[in-house]
Amino acid sequence: MILRILTLLLAALVIGCAPLLLDDGQLSLGMEMLVTFVICAMWNVLAGYGGLVSLGHQAWFGIGGYAVFIASNALNVNPLWLLPLAALVPALIALVLTPLLFRLKDAYFAIGSWVLAEVFYILVQRSDALGGITGMPLFTGGMLGASIYAQVFWVAGGLALAVLVLSYLVLRSGFGLGLMSVRDNEVAAASIGVNVRRNRRLVYAVSAAGVGLAGAVYLIPNYFIQPGIAFSADWTVIMTFVVVIGGIGTLEGPILGTLIYFAIRQGVTDGLGLSGSWYLVALGALAVATMLMAPKGLWPILRDRLHLDWLSVRRPWPGRPDRAPHHQAPAE
Amino acid sequence: MDVIQIERLEAFYGDMQALFGVSLGLRAGETFALVGANGAGKSTLMRALVGLVRDRRGHIRLGGEELIATSPEQIARAGIALVPEGRQLFASLTVEENLQMGAMNRRRGPWDLEAIYGLFPVLRERRRQMAVTMSGGQQQMVAIGRALMANPRVLLCDELSLGLAPVIVSQIYDSFARIRAEGMSMIIVEQDIERAIAVSDRMACLLHGQVTLRVEDTARVDIDALSAAYFGE
Amino acid sequence: MVWVETVLNGIFLGGLYGILGLGLALVFGVMKVINVAHGDFIVLSAFIGVFLSAAVPGVSPLLIILPVVAIAAGLGWAFQSVLMNRVIDSDDMLVPMLLTFGVSFVMRNIMLETFGATPVTLEAGALSRASFQVAGLHLGVLPVLTLAISVVLFGGLNWLITRTEIGRVIRATSDNTAIARLMGVRPGRIYALVMALSLALAAVAGLLLAMRTSFTPSSGIDRILIAFEVVVLGGLGSFWGALLAGIALGVTQLVGFRFDANSGLLYAHLLFLAFLIARPNGLFGSK
Q: Entry's PANTHER family (chain B) (predicted)?
């Protein structure tokens, strides 16, 4: 426990001091990594622990961004002060829509949430008030001053640490256990009194809020928001692939996956000099290979190799059924 | 020589071991009964023989050919057919289509659609009906017919009487005389011990995944020994 | 009259949507997997069609369909045998879907890098401009032909599934794979066949769609979402339900188009969501 707190403090210290040492370009990249980790961790909480695979999570990224841009322009307030809206608005919309969305199960839920994201995307694209396809500027961008990259880096860093701590605590709590039991066996979980539906709604809303926050943080330093970027399906693709590569259902998976993603991006783009979306092809190919060869992701393999169990929320199994003859197979 | 030789067969469901070194032999043309309490491993043994329980060790030899590492479809082609517990008919297929599925292997032998309809005339009348909409007894006839259509060397029947009225069960077992007359070797799993004794030549009792008793002649069964083997006293 | 023509054109378009959904439903019915890459295979088929018709000018685009269908079927067979069959037995039903998601994304981006993002159409030459008048209605030959092809494909697949031995084996595998194996059925083969069939259907629809509207490598997203909506609206296992659902979506889209020209698939998506609201008990009961 002490080790974990020390690690966390060290991470906080690194994030706190980084802006003193890094230039704007490096800070921007760092912010992007932190944001990527946040959205992937939020997708992971939903899919890995909640058992809900959403292929439409880009909706919350865009909605979070638009919420802050609209409010900041309208109220003429520093956008960073309005960040709570980037969590609140997606969470509320998510809570309103879950009764509808949860009528779809499993793969149907996955694609259904994608349809929903498309609807948000088209609606924003068609809204003249929001600048349509071209998007709209952030008029209050000037309020952030020259140190904008340091500021959003700090916010992203704080958000990343908060997401890490929160997911750790939640998953160690009774709520987290209830959640995982729902994932593993919905009927059984309901029969022992877990409120399946409420838990799922809650975790979905939290996940939407986290992604919304990340979206706003990512988009603010651009001073401009465009539906094609804010609602790009690529966000969900990155969430999915990073988590699949890192290890679905583990807390460390998204960290490892994020590092691998950026390594691939820099490697393919700068190292191999391949521009455009080739790094995305490489990411997708790695994800496909991971699903074929290591369906649990790379973190569990690494953990077993290095004997690490740093953040795991796995609990020791209360007792293994032994192989004595008096135990019978369940099939009969 | 035995048609099928089972030696030191072990079967696992994940971490759970369900069979602990079962050895049995089935002679050509005989009917062999497996009895035992619920959870004794009878169905597991059946499912292991046809490859539905994937994790298995030991030996299963069909006419000398080793089948322990083969897939269900290869075992089917080699000539073992199962009438599964609960019948498990194909829900979107008619009676006749279910029967035709049994003949997918193209194994040759006396059993074809005509022969099955001769054995169970009611199936001919209902051949265009969806199989799962029929009564339990008629569904059981389809399941038996489907397995026979494969013209197997060994026919396995798992709990034919499950959920059926006694009079229907009797009708179904009456058909066995015809099946045996064609020289079929059979292993049947039966809850009803009296019936098992009546229809079989030899039998074995399973308990906790092990053979606890072998009866070499069902005409002379020691009921006390059987009871002890059955309940494990 | 304009409205009647719009509705009729919606029906013509809907027939194609029905076929997109039919291929998706076939795979889902047998393997319980939603093939997210369905849309991208459709787009790839269209690109192959464009390439072929440029390579052999003067040949009717309708004849181009044949080799493209063969290629699509081959791709489907390979896709299933090489990739999908390795994860199809996974305990987690979502693993195969995520794999198709990965393949979809890789395909889309490779096509983007190879063909660029400029919209392309499959030139149908005189056929695309030919039209006739019936009862005062002005109708294109191509759309009517399209609907005819759709109906033939629906009928053909229905016949294949319900009347032939291979259809019987496909249904049996879909009902109970383990028991089908006891009959000697090799599920991997059946899955590969079903995927080939699904993508062959998709290729026909993809080419016909490419003759009426332009497409880009990213069009796969629109295609898969429409196909998915057809499957949900039409209900599983219902051939004619899929055709009706496709028509409902096609008509909704084109009528919406009349109202506002930038709507794209918005109204089709909204119809789908409205349907979800209207069916409070879920669409498939407990599962």
A: HIGH-AFFINITY BRANCHED-CHAIN AMINO ACID TRANSPORT ATP-BINDING PROTEIN LIVF
A52 shares a domain with A169 = yes
Q: How far apart are CA A130 and CA C237, in angstroms?
A: 43
- Chain B CB contacts of A317 below 8 Å: none
Query: Residues A56, A194: one domain?
Result: yes
pLDDT digits (tens, 9 = 90+) for A211-264: 999 999 999 999 999 999 999 999 999 999 999 999 988 888 999 999 999 999
pLDDT digits (tens, 9 = 90+) for A56-96: 999 999 999 999 999 999 999 999 999 999 999 999 999 99
Size of interface A-C (CB pairs under 8 A): 121
A198/C contact by beta carbon, under 8 A: no
Bridge partners for B20 per DSSP: B10
- Separation between Cα atoms, residue A74 and residue A76, nearest integer Å: 6
CA distance B144 to B28: 19
Q: CB–CB of B104 and C169 under 8 A?
A: yes
Rounded Cα distance between A113 and A55, Å, is 6
Please identify, among A205, A231, A257, the residue that sits at the C-terminal boundary of a domain: A231
CA-to-CA distance for C25 and C234, rounded, in angstroms?
10
CATH for B4-83+151-231 is 3.40.50.300
Residue A57: inside a domain: yes
pLDDT digits (tens, 9 = 90+) for A275-292: 778 898 999 999 999 999
Of the candidates B72, B81, B91, which has its C-beta nearest C181's C-beta? B72
Flag if C265 and A106 touch (Cβ within 8 Å): no
Which subunits count as partners of chain A given 3+ CB pairs below 8 Å?
Answer: B, C
| Domain extents in chain B | 4-83+151-231
ipTM of the prediction: 0.92
Contact C181 B102 (CB under 8 A): no
Here the tokens at position C280 are 């409070």
| pLDDT tens digits along A136-187 | 999 887 788 778 888 999 999 999 999 988 878 777 776 676 677 666 666 6
B138: its two tokens: 């008629």
- 3-state secondary structure labels for all residues of A60-109: HHHHHHHHHHHHHHHHCCCHHHHHHHHHHHHHHHHHHHHHHHCCCCHHHH
- Statement to judge: residues A160 and A240 lie in one domain: no
DSSP string across A118-174: HHHHHHHHH-GGGTGGG-EE-GGGGGG-TTHHHHHHHHHHHHHHHHHHHHHHHHHSH
Q: Best residue in B89, B92, B97, B158 to probe C by mutation, most C CBs within 10 Å?
A: B92
Tell me whether C120 touches chain B (CB under 8 Å).
no
∠ CA A156-A159-A164, rounded to 5°: 125
Q: Does residue A4 sit within a domain? A: no
Contact B39, A329 (CB under 8 A): yes
Note whether A111 contacts C34, CB cutoff 8 Å. yes
